[in-house]
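Supplementary Methods, section 5.1.

A reviewer requested that the exact input to the structure prediction be made available. We therefore reproduce it here, unchanged from the version used in the analyses.
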Amino acid sequence: MEILHSRIVGNGQPLLILHGYFGMGDNWKTHANALAEDGYEVHLIDQRNHGRSFHADAFDYELLVEDLYNYIAHHELENVYILGHSMGGKTAMLFATEYPELVTKLIVADISPRMYPPHHHDILAALNSVDFAVQNSRKLVDEKLAELIPEPGVRQFLLKSVYRKDKTELAFRFNLKSLTENNSEVGEALPSFTMYEGETLFLRGANSGYISTDEEPLIKAHFPKAIIKTVANAGHWLHAENPKGFYEALVTFL
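The structure derived from this sequence is encoded token-by-token as follows.
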């Protein structure tokens, strides 16, 4: 059984952070360091096919939940707080409904339990267009991605997962083949009639369309104690776009 890779900072109440699609735990290190100073043991987890965790052909939320369960058992954790963003939020939601006895508080960042139609097609096409034999520097990779991804911020985020595999060749840390083949899994809805009755916070970006106001009944059906808060001046990457506002809402809830 393979255990997810993580970076652990601080001591205290365990708080597990689950990144979004194409991300990795390291994307959250600024918040993790602040949370560690506030008295939490923060686990920056790389989910399967991302960061430094193992690669596998199979990829869906049931598997991501199983990976997280194995991780918690391996580290002998209990009464955990889980914070998940986007794809990580979907993992966190499903985990909390399946293993409520392990989760003390749940924080979901800018994703709802509903089904999202497959998107990210341009990102996947751009990533698959990179040939590391030709694009053998970060600058050349960035230029290639720019043909389909005009937003510099999105490219910078993706470039964080580019690393030097050996002296001559770069590679992506994420498993692009599996993520491409299983893209439709990422938008899957939380199964009907699943419920987590613990304390739950949903944080949405004011400029993001991922959680609309008419989704509140759906959120409450799955998470009856849910509080829904909006982070001003932020889109989908709310923790990066308004880190101060995001952090304040998070620690107030914790």
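The chain has ten helices and nine strands. These observations are discussed further in the main text.
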